[in-house]
Structure formats: C-alpha cells, structure tokens
Amino acid sequence: MPTKPRPVRAAVLTALLLALVVGWPDPAHAHRGVVLHLHHDGRGTVRVDMAWTDGHPVTGPASAVLLAQRAGGRSVGPVGLRAVIGSGPTTLTLDAPLADGRWTVTVDAASPGLGQCVADLVVGPDSPAQSITCGSITAPTVTAAAPPAGGGLTVPIAGAALLIILGLARYARHRRPGRSGAGPC
Questions:
Q1: Are 117 and 48 in contact (CB under 8 A)?
Q2: Using an 8 Å Cβ cutoff, are 11 and 172 in contact?
C-alpha cells in the first residue's frame, strides 16, 4: 500500500490539530459546584443528597465529610459519609445516628464538586424530620466574553493555518514522482 507524501500527511495532521484546538470547549461548560440536600429524620439519622448547581444530575460517585457539634460540647467527626446502598452514588449517610440534643451539623462535599451545608438539628423522640437545602440550583447563564485586548487573533490565525494547509495540499498534489514540478497548476 503506497504511503501518502509527507506534505499531505503534514496537511492532514495540521488540519486535525486545528480542528481540535478550535473545537475544544472552554471551561465555562463545566459544572460549578454541588447543592447539598441534608435530610434528618428527627431520631438522629442524617442523609445527604447532591445535585449540580446548574441543574444537571450528579451521576458519579460522591464523597463528603460531616462534623457535628452538640450544645454542651460533645462532637462527632469529622467523619466520611458512606453511600446508601440502592439509593445511587450521590446519596450519603452517617453510619451511626446522632444522640439526643441540639446539633450544629456541617457537611463538606469534596467530590464530584465542592459544596457545604451547615444546619441546626434537634434530635429526640418527638423531634420532627427536617430537610435543608444548602445552595440553589440555577440555570447556567451565558455571558458574552469581552474581546481580547489584542483585538482577537483567533480568526486571523485560523485563516493563516487554512491557507498553509491548502498550499501544502496543492503542492503535494502537483508534485509527483517523475515530474519536474513544472506544468499547469
């Protein structure tokens, strides 16, 4: 099988590289952080659910740490929360329930995004269940970027690269073994 001449290979590789650079998404397409939904059953069980701040569902594994401070000095943690079996990778729970009393609970999410929730919980036989949402889900906003200070070189550079690619392709097409390179273009 004959190989392509070097200028043609160079033109193809340059075109692929240019397509990759021009088509690469900027960081604005990334998720910004997570919203934490802290649930408490009134009897000391604490559960945390996560969602992206831009409204997209979190689909990968999650990790978070809980620190609880009870009025009067007793504390729990910092302790890692574990995934709830059968509830998806982003539902996390504390292994043991909190003891009766008033607690200030802080949950710090580390992955897949950063988030924090601080809530006051009351644990006891007659305590009501609570659900606290820390953060808010907002639609992603699209803002127009200011033009670069240099006047924007993307289009001129892309145009120059395209002209170079076309020139290399034309050169490679007309330069064949056994030909002097002279002739109509």
A1: yes
A2: yes
- For residues 36 and 50, the answer to whether their CB atoms sit within 8 Å is yes
CB 47 within 8 A of CB 80: no
The model's pTM is 0.55
Tell me the two tokens of residue 56. 């997209």
> What are the backbone dihedrals phi and psi of residue 123, each rounded to the nearest 5 degrees, phi first?
-110, 130
Helix (H, G, I), strand (E, B) or coil at 168: helix
pLDDT per residue as tens digits for the range 123-178: 888 888 888 888 766 655 555 455 555 555 666 676 667 778 777 777 777 766 65
Single-letter amino acid code for the residue at 36: L
Ordered structural domains, the chain, with CATH:
33-134 (2.60.40)
Extract the runs of DSSP E, i.e. beta strands, from the chain. Answer: 34-40, 46-52, 63-70, 75-80, 82-83, 91-93, 101-111, 115-123, 130-134
CA–CA gap between residue 78 and residue 106 (Å, rounded) = 9
